UniProtKB/TrEMBL annotation:
The porphobilinogen subunits are added to the dipyrromethane group. SUPFAM superfamilies: Periplasmic binding protein-like II, Porphobilinogen deaminase (hydroxymethylbilane synthase), C-terminal domain. It comes from Emticicia aquatilis. Keywords: Porphyrin biosynthesis, Transferase. This is Porphobilinogen deaminase.
Length: 312
């Protein structure tokens, strides 16, 4: 059996693809990595929220899944749309690593809470809004591009620090530049952060599908991701909406219990809705949906409408 692994060409994407490849190879499966450039990789001069359309980082990969050019596509779970086309599915989720956001800088003494004002580069609407909400004295500059591009901009002095996901920083080996790990109570992560997901066409052979699931999937992470993605789907927020959703699993009396915190924040950081709820792992999907309903009912719908008017 040979499994063809499709991936974007960024260093982070390649790290993830090799990570998956290693797990398959360890079981004697033959693999091939196919690098595919997406629209999101090509267009670097516009804010992502302005390119706007769904799937700018996934469309080309999905076309090749359908044609059988590749068997699986490897993604950061965070970058995936909440709804996939009917002929595609997510067949595995890797065990999640630390989900926090981190402040990365050449100056390790920087801290958001110090009261000192400095310039943070980020392009994530969620991070911008949370900075405005919790740390209004911080100046923000828009910073797109892959991790290496952003670090170069940091080096050139376009900002004093970057706000990034620990997972990416760790995978790229920039660990020692972490000045501060942010509190998850403030910077609650977005749906999927820290997890690698495997996408496949439903037409993939059962033999391959089973082998991949068996070697890659972490059952506990999968439950959490099902809840988180149900939240995102019900909220109808794309990846450019500053929503967040983080589900944690815990063994309780021999049963897996899920606890999830999710919400949405206005772009200016002035309004934030955050809700928490628990359910059994068997009700993962309902957990996400219930939370979305709660968030929407408690002011989330108004925030979402404001954001839509602003972005379009
Ligand atoms: N949107 C870019 C992106 N997609 C996945 C990661 C990091 C890895 C992860 O969260 O799994 C990053 C970089 C970042 O947000 O700092």
């Amino acid at each position: 059996m040979k499994i063809k692994i499709g991936t974007r060409g960024s260093k982070l994407a390649l790290w993830q693809a090799y990570y998956i490849e290693d797990k398959l190879k360890a079981d004697g499966i033959e693999t091939e990595i196919v690098i595919i450039e997406t629209k999101g990789d090509k267009i670097l001069d516009r804010a992502l929220s302005k390119i706007g359309s769904k799937g700018v980082f996934t469309e080309e990969l999905e076309d090749q899944l359908r044609s059988g050019e590749i068997d699986i596509a490897v993604h950061s779970a965070k970058d995936l749309q909440s709804e996939l086309a009917d002929d595609l599915e997510l067949i595995a989720f890797t065990e999640r690593e630390k989900i926090a956001d981190v402040l990365v800088s050449f100056n390790k003494n920087l801290s958001l809470g110090s009261g000192e004002s400095f310039v943070v580069g980020t392009s994530s609407t969620r991070r911008v809004a949370m900075l405005r909400h919790y740390y209004p004295h911080i100046k923000i500059v828009d910073m797109r591009g892959n991790l290496q591009t952003r670090l170069r901009k940091l080096e050139e002095g376009q900002c004093d620090a970057l706000l990034l996901a620990y997972a990416g920083v760790h995978r790229m080996g920039y660990h020692e530049m972490i000045a501060q790990e942010l509190l998850t109570t403030q910077f609650t992560p977005p749906v999927g952060q820290g997890c690698v997901a495997i996408e496949a066409a439903k037409s993939l052979s059962e033999e391959k599908r089973a082998a991949i699931r068996n070697l890659i999937n972490d059952d506990v992470t999968e439950k959490c991701l099902i809840a988180e993605r149900a939240y995102l789907r019900k909220l109808q927020g794309g990846c450019s909406i500053p929503s967040f959703g983080w589900c944690v699993a815990e063994e309780k009396n021999g049963e897996l219990a899920l606890n999830m915190t999710s919400g949405i924040i206005s772009l200016d950081g002035k309004m934030i809705v955050k809700k928490n709820e628990s359910k059994s792992a068997a009700e993962a999907e309902q957990l996400g949906e219930t939370l979305a309903e709660k968030v929407l009912r408690s002011g989330g719908a108004e925030i979402l409408e404001g954001i839509r008017n602003n972005i379009s």
